[in-house]
Amino acid sequence: MVLPGYGSGAQPSVWQPDTLQELQNIREQIEGTRCYVAGGTLLRTQWEASSKVLPEHLVSLACIPEISGISMQGDEIVIGAMTRLRECATDPLLSRFPILHQAILAIAAPSVRNLATIGGNIASGIGDSLPALLVYDAELHLLTCRGLETQRVALWLENGRDNKLNADDVLISIHIPFRNATVNLSTSDPEQYVYETEQSIPERNHQFSFYRKLGRREAFTASLVTVAFHGEVSPQDGRWTQVAIAAGGGSGIAVRLTETEHWLRSGKADASQAAGLATQAVAEFVSYTDAFATELYRRQSAGNMLGAGLWQAFHP
C-alpha cells in the first residue's frame, strides 16, 4: 500500500508491503527512482548530508515478517535482513560466530543498533559486518526481477566494486554455514576477541578467530579500518587447515586477502608468523586516501591489527 498524504510535490511516495509477493508486485508497479528502507539510520544521514538524493518512492521492508529473525535451517544459520542489530548482538546462535558478534557490537551506538538492521549494514556495501561475513563464507539471498537468487558475499562485493549490482535487488536473508561455528570460548576476557575449540578433544581442529576495528576516536565514529580472521589448526601436525582473512573499513569495500591466506598456510601455525602476516597484509590490502587517513596508513593499520591479533591468539 502507499501511505496517504504522500506522492505529491517533493515528498516521496511511501510503500509498505506486507509480504514478499506484495513487494514484488510493487516493484513491477511503480515507476521512477526508488529506495528500499530497512532501519533507515544510514539513509537519513546520507539524505541530510545531501550525499544521496531523496527518491520518488520509499519502499519500507519493516512490515514483512518473513525477512526478520534468526534460525537454524539445515546446516546453516539464517538471519533475516530486517533483523535489528540489537537482536543479532544478543542471539545465542550468533554468539557461536564470534567475529560477526563482535563486529555487530562495534557498529554505531546502542541507540542506533535498536533501529538499524543487519540487512541495511550489508546493503550499504561498506558495513562493518562485511569482513566477518567474508571469512565465514556467507551467502546472500536476494529478491531480483527474476525471483529469488543466491550470491556469495565475496562475489556480491566484487560485483559492487565493478558497478555490476542492480540497485533494485532486495536483500532477503543472510546464510552462514554452521561448520564455521566456534565450539567454546578460550578466554574469559571478551575484550580479547580470541576464540578456540576445546583442546581436550584431539580429533577437532583448534579454531582461532578475532575481529578488530580502528576508528578516528574512542567514542562512536565511522571506521578507518576493520579486519577479521578465522583459522583452524590441526592438532596432529600443528599446521593450518583453514585460513580466512578479510579487511575493509570506512568507505572501502571489504576484500578477502587470499594471497596472505596462502602465505600463512604455507608455514607452521605459531606466534612467529605474526610479523610476516602483518607484512603480507600490508602488501596485498588495497585501500584509499581521504581527509582522515592515507591509504598507506590504512594498509599498515590493517597489517598491524592482523599481526597483533594472531600473536594474541597464541598468547591469550
From TrEMBL:
Name of the protein described by the UniProt record: Carbon-monoxide dehydrogenase medium subunit
Stored InterPro entries: CO_DH_flav_C, CO_DH_flav_C_dom_sf, Diverse_Substr_Oxidored, FAD-bd_PCMH, FAD-bd_PCMH-like_sf, FAD-bd_PCMH_sub2, Mopterin_DH_FAD-bd
Alphabetical list of PANTHER family matching this protein: XANTHINE DEHYDROGENASE SUBUNIT C-RELATED
Transmembrane segments: none
Pfam family, one: FAD_binding_5
Any GO molecular function: FAD binding
Keyword annotations of the record: FAD, Flavoprotein, Oxidoreductase
Gene3D superfamilies: 3.30.465.10, CO dehydrogenase flavoprotein, C-terminal domain
Lineage, broadest ranks: Bacteria, Bacillati, Bacillota, Bacilli, Bacillales
Domain FAD-binding PCMH-type: 6-181
Keyword Calcium included in the entry's annotation: no
